[in-house]
Amino acid sequence: MRLSMRLIDGVQPPAESVSFTFEGKHLTAWPGEAIASAIMRAGIQTMRKTRIQGNDRGYFCGMGLCWECAVHVEGQGVIRSCSHPVVDGQIISFADGPFE
Ligand code: FES
């Protein structure tokens, strides 16, 4: 499967892709691409909802410190999406739990 996406001029996308779902939407990623990157390339900014008020949260620090990008991965639990690559077939959803 060939990915269609906006790229910086002169940059060629990899020929291969992996597939996953986020909140029931079928998405694709480059092999080794961070979950947060693949979600944002699909035009989605929200990766979790705050537990009490349900506010949107998403990518912030990009280096595994803030946990704003937390997502729930089936079989793994809550992880930081900026720090983990997409694995083919993953089922990912909004994180909820002990985050404000
Ligand atoms: S964006 Fe801060 S931990 Fe992922």
Please provide a written account of the structure.
The chain is mainly beta. It is built from one helix and seven strands, in the order ββαβββββ. The strands form two sheets. The protein has a five-stranded mixed beta sheet, covered by helices on one side. The N and C termini lie far apart (38 Å).
Main attributes?
single chain; 100 residues; mainly beta; Ubiquitin-like (UB roll); five-stranded mixed beta sheet; two-stranded antiparallel ribbon; 1 helix; 26% strand; globular; binds FE2/S2 (inorganic) cluster
Strand order of the largest sheet: 2-1-7-5-6
Q: In total, how many domains does the architecture comprise?
A: 1
Compressed to H and E, one letter per element, the order equals EEHEEEEE
How many individual β-strands? 7
